[in-house]
Amino acid sequence: MSNQTTSAPLATARLPIPFVIAATVLLLIALAITVPFNPEWWKIIILGVVQGITEWLPISSTGHLLITSKLLGFEGSIGGTFEIAIQFGTVIAVVVFYLNDLLAQARAVIGQADTDDVIQARRLWLSIVIATIPAAAIGIVFREQIKAVLFDTPQLIAGALIIGGVIFLLLELLPTREAHTGELGDVTLKQAIGIGIAQIFALIPGVSRSGASIVGGLLAGLDRRTATAFSFYLSIPTLGGATLVDLLSSLDQITAGDWGNLLLGAVVAMIVGYLTIGWLLRYIANHSFAAFGVYRILAGVIIFGLVAAGWLA
Q: d(Cα 9, Cα 83) in Å, to the nearest integer?
């Protein structure tokens, strides 16, 4: 049985030249548009780096972005839209990283013959669609409440980081669950529903979308590499859709100058995010998620300390 189009590929050896050229051009354009008119351009670069690193690691990109924005005194949040919109850069990163596999799957999905590759590719994308629905539905319905209440509470972010860290440590300390799914094309609809339900918790800043979906995948019986790859694939409709919905809903708040900020943040996040995907896939091939659990707990404790010291409010 061929699983060429539905396996969980490991890290690529080098950056594709077209990506390097396109990223460089976009970065130069974004800098030219932003730097002369916005003295906070360096804060945008820092936030783009934070987004690129933390989106794929199970440590909560939104939580890190919101806390970093507060510590930097960043004024260009646009009510949380900036933190959501620059996620599109990491969506582009994962599409480029898996481009060959995505193209192969697209050919398989529209294929006429019912070969193993076609069946598995169709099953994979049906699973991704199903896993996207729960968080997307709740996120759209409660979008304003989530941004108004959850995006401005450092204590909530700290608590979510700590709880998530404890969950990761428990997963590593408890007896290992048997992983009976080692290929993306073998993910069942039942497993997809479980992962989708787990991803709902990621609407809370500090939980982590990748962390929730990876934990959901592990509990559903996926092995580490497949759970991580499925989380990456799931990010394409989840983050892409969230970015599009939030941008369209916030058009009346976005000024002409904001678009340069969004472009710069997204491009930096794209570049750093691409590098992070490769690193994480190499890391999980030989390590557990325990280090991320410890980091989350320490980060949560530090945030509580900053709140207590009056540095965060």
A: 29
* Residue 175 DSSP symbol: P
Alpha carbons 184 and 57: distance in angstroms, whole number:
20
Query: Hey, what are 239's tokens?
Result: 């983050």
At 167, list the tokens: 């969950």
- The residue with greater pLDDT, 113 or 268, is 268
The three-state secondary structure class of 274 is helix
Buried b (16+ CB within 10 A) or exposed e, 65-82: bbbbbbeeebebbbebbb
Cβ-contact 131, 195 below 8 angstroms: yes
Domain range list for the chain: 17-308
Which amino acid would we find at residue 65? L
- pLDDT tens by residue, 264-273: 999 999 999 9
Helix axes 17-34, 256-284, angle to 10 degrees: 150
User: What are 64-75's pLDDT values in tens digits?
Assistant: 999 999 999 998
The H or E element that residue 231 is part of is helix 224-249
Three-state secondary-structure class, residue 309: coil
Q: Distance between CA atoms of 120 and 159, rounded to whole angstroms?
A: 39
Rounded CA-CA distance 64/158 in Å is: 10
Q: Which residue matches tokens 């900036």?
A: 82
Q: Which pTM value belongs to this model?
A: 0.89
